Amino acid sequence: MKTNEVPQDPKNFREGDKVNKLLYAVDKNGNYTGVTSAGWEAENFATKQAWDAVDEELAMTAEQVKRGELSPIAYYMHKCLMEPSLLAKYVGKWTWQVKRHMKKANFEKLSSDVLARYAKAFNISVEELTSFGK
Amino acid sequence: MSIADYKHYQHAHCESGVTANLLRHEGVDISEPLAFGIGAGMFFGHLPFLKVSGTPGTTFRTWPGAIFKRATQRLGITMHTQRFPNPQKAMKALDDVLATGKPVGMLSSVYYLPYLPEAFRFHFNAHNLVVYGKENEEYYVSDPVLEQTTRIAPEDLAKARFAKGAPEPKGFMYYVKSVPKEIHFEKAIQSGIKQTCFFMLSPPVPWFGNKAIFLLANKIQQYPKKLTPRKASLYLGNIIRMQEEIGTGGAGFRFLYAAFLQEAANILKRDDLQGFSQELTLIGDDWRNFAYNAARVMKDRKEGIVSFDELADMLRICGEKEKDFFKRMQKLKW
Fold this sequence. Notes:
The structure holds two protein chains of two kinds. Chain A is mainly α. Chain A has two domains: 3-39, no CATH class; 52-131, 434 Repressor (Amino-terminal Domain) (Orthogonal Bundle). In chain A, 53% of the residues lie in helices and 9% in strands. Chain A has seven helices and two strands; from the N terminus they run E-E-H-H-H-H-H-H-H. Chain A has helices at residues 41-66, 72-79, 84-91, 95-101, 104-108, 112-122, 126-131, and strands at residues 21-26, 32-37. In chain A, strands 1-2 form a two-stranded antiparallel sheet. In chain A, helix 1 (41-66) runs antiparallel to helix 2 (72-79) and helix 3 (84-91) crosses helix 4. The longest helix of chain A is centred in the middle third of the chain and has 26 residues, at 41-66. The radius of gyration of chain A is 21 Å and the shape is elongated. By secondary structure, chain B is of the alpha+beta class. In chain B, 51% of the residues lie in helices and 15% in strands. In chain B, helix 2 (32-38) crosses helix 9 (254-268), helix 6 packs across helix 11 and helix 7 runs antiparallel to helix 11. At the A-B interface, strand 1, strand 2, helix 1 and helix 3 of A face helix 8, helix 9 and helix 10 of B.
C-alpha cells in the first residue's frame, strides 16, 4: 500500500469517527512510514454488520422477554455483549445455572443476593433488572 | 517523574506500541516495527472450533504477551511483571510504582475503557496500555492506538484490569527495571526473523502458521453449502475485522512486518532484507484485495457459491506466496 492509497472512509457510527488509527504504508521513495486513517469501507462494513447483528439479536431477545419466554437476564446479557459462560464468571455461578436463570420461572425465584450480583455485572440497579419487560 | 516527562507516540498495534513507548521512555531508540519484528509478532491461525461471540477465531498475530516478552528478552532488558489476586492490591501496586516515576504497562479489557469509541468495545481482554501518572483521582493513560493521551477513573481502570473471561488479565502489569548500557539490535533482529519463519512454516497441525491459511480457504469455500447466508456473512466479516480493524497496521500485520524488514535491512546493511520487505508489501496488498472482495460478497448475499470459491482462491494465493516467502527467508545466511 502506498501512502496516497491509505483509505480515509470515516467510520460514522457508534463514535467510530473519534479515532484515527495508524497504518503503515510506503512513501514515494519506497520508505515505510505511519499514516493515520479514518477507516476503510470494507472494514467499516464488517464492523457495522457485527453491530447490526448485535442489535437484531437484542431486539429479538427483548420481544421474548416481553412475551414471558425469557427473563430480563437474557436481555441484559446480550446488551452487555456477553455469553452465558462469561456472565457466569462475573456472577460466580456455573454456566448451566446462568442458563437456568434466563428462564422466566426460575428468574422469579432468585434471591435478592443473586439478583444484586447480576445487576452489578450489568452495571444497572436491581430495580432496572427486575422491572424490564413489565 | 512529572507527568509532563512522558512522551506518547501513536502506534498501530497495542502490544508492540506499548513495548516501544515504554522502552523509548528509558532512552532506547526503538520503533514499533522493530519491537514487533524482534518480538516475532507476525503469525497466522484459524481455529474453527474456538468460537468468539459465535464466529470461528482467526488471528494474524502471535498470542498475547509474546511480542512484549520476546522483544525485551532479546534486547537484554529486565522487566518486572506481576499479576494480582484482587483489584485493591493491583491498584495499590500501580500507585506505588507510579510514585517512583515509572510508567507502567498493563493488560485491560477494551469493553471497560470508556475513552474508546463504542464501535470498538467488545469483550477483548488482551489490550495493552500505559499508565504514566495519577492526579486528582484520575489516571493518565497513554493508549498506543490513540493519537492523544487520555484519562481514566480509578474504578473504570480497576474493572478493565480485572475483566473476566479468557484470557483473564488478573491485573497484569509490567515496567522496565533496567536497561543494559549497550543494546545489540543485530542479534535480536536475527533471532526474531528466525523465529517468525519457524512459526509460520513448522507447526505440524493445520490450525497454526502458513497451513492455516489453506485451512481457512477450504472453510470459506464450504460456507455457502454449510451456513445460512447471514452466518456466512458474519464469519467473513469477522475475518476482515481481525485483518483490518484497529490495531494491525493494515493487511493483518503484513505491512507492519514489512516495515520491520526494511528497518532491519538498514540496521544490518543488507539489501536482501530490503527485497523481502518489498515482496511482503505486495503480499499485503493481496490480503487487502481479499478483504475488499470479501466485503463485496457480504454486501450482496445472493451472489452464491462462485464468489466464495473465488475468495478461497485469493486466500490460497496469499498462502502460496507467503510459504515461498518464508521458505526463502529461512535460508538466509547470517
